[in-house]
Amino acid sequence: MLLFQDDGGGMDPEGVRRCMSLGFSTKKSKTTIGQYGNGFKTSTMRLGADAIVFTRAIRGSNVTLSIGLLSYTFLRRTMKDDIVVPMLDFKIQDGETVPLVYGSQGDWDSSLKIILDWSPFSSKEELLQQFQDVGSHGTKVAVYNLWMNDDGLLELDFEDDDEDILLRDQGSASGGVTKGQKEIVQQHISHRLRFSLRAYTSILYLKKFDNFQIILRGKPVEQICITDELKFKKVVTYKPQVTHDSQVVSVRVDVGFAKEAPILGIFGMNVYHKNRLIMPFWKVFQEGSSRGRSVVGVLEANFIEPAHDKQDFERTPLFLRLEMRLKQIIIDFWKEKCHLIGYQPTDPNLRSQYKATLKDSGGSASHVHHKNSSARRTGGFSSNLLPETYDDVATAGFPNNGFHLQSTGQAQENNMDSEGLDEDLVEIGSSGIFDPNFMEKLSEENLALFSRREELRQRDTQLKQTIEDLEHELEETKRKCGQLAAELKVRKNQQHLHYRV
């Protein structure tokens, strides 16, 4: 059984019926993502076959307790043609919990029987006991008959980590040459969020939540602010043209290198919508690209609408323009700052200055040495999955860019920032220049052509509409001309008769 519980305002009988109904939603807020009224139903049914809801609310002087059952098992085994959701309501009267009957007593008794037959609870008293830890107001949702995989094991893993809930068989890490690198990959938030509920909820909200708390298996979730983890951070303002007559939208894009760079080659843009994470570590470049390696970004894109499952955005021309703009932001950032993490500058002027600096310092090897590389081997990690220190005990090769990181047998500190850059001596080989990736160029051109095609389609539609309007106007003019000609003919005939008389 998977249990969700909150100490919020709870739902009154009308509210819980709206919650349990398909397609009902009153959310029209500019700050919340709810819209279609199907999220609770689809999410609980994805986790398990059955869900039972207990909710207690105070509305004025009325205290109500409601129970609702959404059971796929019940509907399937009884071969129901319609979706039947049994509901029970109670009220507190003179300190006693008494049934609250909205329809007939027969309907209330029938709902009670269905809930007792198809839930883990065998009596009305057991049902009411579930409200004891809810408090004066709040909601508890229990999902049971959880789904299993093909091997007959629960899809959710509750055993490997007592403080987390994991997706089974989703934790295998790829990437990393040495054991130390693979360990960093496995512990990094960009990898763990794919299968760890704690990791995912730690970056679920963009803004720091200070008026509520998420507690997972008895331990509070510590929020991670991705922008705080970036090195050499830069802020870029993007002003998309949403519509021709709309107000100008301004989007802040924070971009920088992951603090593990260049040891860890993770990259991607984290796109939020109304404070809620939609696309984590979205790779706007192809996986094998050397451009943008270790570059991470964060932005809140409220000007585009997410898909129904809130895990992606609709592929509209507006979204494609955002994708192209983010690519350009990453390319510009990479060209400007890639030498700060040990890559040869792509800009000719910077490259000349850098070679001169290397010559003055007597460097000639294609190695990276940090003067402060005597960090202690602690192996420590923060409570929310981001490493605090990083160890690498062997040579790590990056064949795509001709760059090698030579270990000196000591741990390297990754706390380099823009102020401390002068303390590090970086020596770069001549093979670190990146040739543009042909497939990426082709992809960019295709996106540009697609966007252009959409614009031409819109223009074609407008022109067709204009032609239809003109044709309609022409027909109307012809009709009026015909009427005028007929009236003129009648008047001429009348005048002709008058002259004859």
Mean pLDDT: 78
Structural class, from helix and strand content? alpha+beta
Count helical runs: 11
Low-confidence stretches: 363-436
Helix content: 25-40%
| Percent range for β-strand residues | 15-25%
The largest beta-sheet arranges its strands as 1-6-2-3-4-5
SSE ordering: EHHEEHEEHHEEEHHHEEEEEEEHHEEEEH
**Beta-strand segment tally:** 19
Main sheet record: 6 strands, antiparallel
The backbone outline, from C-alpha atoms, is flat
Distance between the termini: 105 Å
Radius of gyration: 32 Å
Structure commentary:
It is a single chain. The longest helix has 63 residues, at 438-500. Residues 363-436 have low confidence and may be disordered. The protein is α+β, with helices and mostly antiparallel strands. β4 (87-93) and β5 (96-99) form a beta hairpin. It has helices at residues 13-20, 39-47, 72-77, 105-118, 124-129, 179-187, 189-192, 197-202, 317-337, 348-361, 438-500, and strands at 2-6, 48-59, 62-71, 87-93, 96-99, 138-146, 156-157, 166-167, 215-216, 219-220, 230-238, 251-258, 268-273, 276-282, 295-300, 368-370, 396-398, 403-405, 424-426. The strands form six sheets. The chain has a six-stranded antiparallel β-sheet with strand order 1-6-2-3-4-5. A five-stranded mixed β-sheet has the order 11-12-15-13-14, covered by helices on one side. It has a two-stranded antiparallel ribbon with strand order 7-8. α9 (317-337) runs antiparallel to α11 (438-500). It is flat. Keywords: Coiled coil, DNA damage, DNA repair, Endonuclease, Hydrolase, Nuclease, Nucleus, RNA-mediated gene silencing. Belongs to the MORC ATPase protein family. Residues 361-382 are annotated as: Disordered.
